[in-house]
Amino acid sequence: MKSQISNAMLLAIIINIVYAKAIGVTQGIIARQAGGDMWIVTIFSTLFGLLIMSLTVLIIKRTPEKNILEQTKLLVGKWGEKLIALLMFTFFLGAYGGIMITVVYHLMDYFLPEVPTYIFVALVTIVGVYGIMKGVEVIARLAVLGVFSIIVLNILLLLGSLDYFEIESFLPVLRNGFFNAVEVTKHHNADWAMATLMVAIILPMVKQKEKWMKYSTKALILGGGFILMWPILEVGVLSPEVAGQYIVACMQMARSAEIGLFVHRYELIMVIFFAISALIQVMMCLLCASISAKHIIGGNNLNFLLIPVAVILGVFGYWVVNDHIRAMDLLTYYWPRVAMPITFAVPIIVFLLGFIFKKKLTKGNLDAPS
């Protein structure tokens, strides 16, 4: 793959692909299952993300010109490549359902309840396809702007919430037990999995491979910090009991914030600054699903597959969000059971295959163009 983006752009994409869903529907689910420990769950999940991201970067650095699917083909042939690609496509298909829950319910439940669901799904998917057609470089530049928007949003929310913050809400710590907190991390782990599996596909597009580990680690730490502020404020301002009553907990948190006499409710401000991160999630999910589909069928033209993949993901996304109960049941009970095995299996299998067929990796690097 030709290098197209810088490591700083990669950092921005990683932060954006996790942020929107992690502060939205994920925190509501965690509040219902972990209560006041939701901020601890977020820390545990970030540490998990660091571990899997580091493993993923190490795998790609073995063959810097090849993504994880191309490396699998080098190691075990095209059928192994197709199997891993199918797992990756399944993951991004499911992840798109979660992204649609985040985007559609933000807009439909709080601003435009009378607009048909398919309008939201169709428009968001079309914008995602348009972004991919413009190229990864354009998406990456938009992600840099998205990081700026995230910082502004977090600062505004922090300033508007401090007067209502109650430290007593955090006690006792680990009130539901350490192992419960670890178990509940599966919901946030599925968000970080989007970042790690995306990196497994796009990392060869990034320049200066010697900086891959440094910038991916920075992205996880910064992204985790940006996200962590939300459960801390939700516990200290709303209380976990209140946060857990909402599908989109961050919107209720935004409603509770105010600055001065004139800016009392942040819903519109939040959506404005939140939108870029949500669009990056859509674009990168569509891109990674399309690349996975290309490796499944063995084609060479990514643009040819982009529209069919967008239709498949869009139809699935519509089916998910068209029923609130179905959407939350899928996201809460079924999606982690699908996402976690794929998240662990793909990097661990490819990592072990690299040890077993080390000579193939060496030969592949020698044959790769300099």
TrEMBL record:
Database matches in InterPro entries: Spore_GerAB
GO biological process, one term: spore germination
Membrane topology: Multi-pass membrane protein
Signal peptide as annotated in the record: none
Parts of the chain that traverse the membrane: 39-60, 83-105, 117-133, 142-162, 190-207, 219-238, 268-289, 301-321, 333-357
Keyword set includes S-adenosyl-L-methionine: no
Cellular component terms (Gene Ontology): membrane
Annotated compartments: Membrane
Predominant place of localization: membrane
Pfam family for this entry, one: Spore_permease
Superkingdom as given in the UniProt entry: Bacteria
Key words, A-Z: Germination, Membrane, Transmembrane, Transmembrane helix, Transport
Similarity-based family: Belongs to the amino acid-polyamine-organocation (APC) superfamily. Spore germination protein (SGP) (TC 2.A.3.9) family.
Protein name per UniProt: Spore gernimation protein
